[in-house]
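Chapter review: from sequence to fold.
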Amino acid sequence: MATLHLMVGLPCSGKSTLARTLEHKHSALRLTPDEWQIRLFGQDAQEPEHNARHTIIETLQWEVASRALALGINVILDYGFWAREEREDLRLRAKQLGASSEVHFLDVPENELLRRLAQRNAQSSLLTFQIPEQMMRPWIAFFQKPTPDELKRRD
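The token string follows.
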């Protein structure tokens, strides 16, 4: 049975690093929207089109992911999944495809997230967005941490 792995956490929490480890451990297809978006559009996090582009990329990646899961291939979605509703929706979709699902939550304190963000922003990267701190703070407030029941594997 294939497994859908959901990477849950805020920017700079370590999701993509863990996703790369899980990719090899579980012979999984890893889909990270930021990597696609930066390659296609550059560092566009502050451009008005950013969110629309991101949604299109996530939609395309889900089409790839759903086909892979149906074929029995493990998939890692490295999206962040800030809201419980979003996590539950993807887990239901996985179940409908006959796949199990797991949530991998990286809970990092705000001061550490902001320290890592400053470090990230000091470097140019083709893999991660440079995000101003003033953009990050509302995201921290919005983020819905997974409940203990969400962290259980679902077959």
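Two observations follow directly from the output. The helical segments are 15-25, 33-41, 50-70, 84-96, 110-121, 133-142. The chain is about 50% helix and 15% strand.
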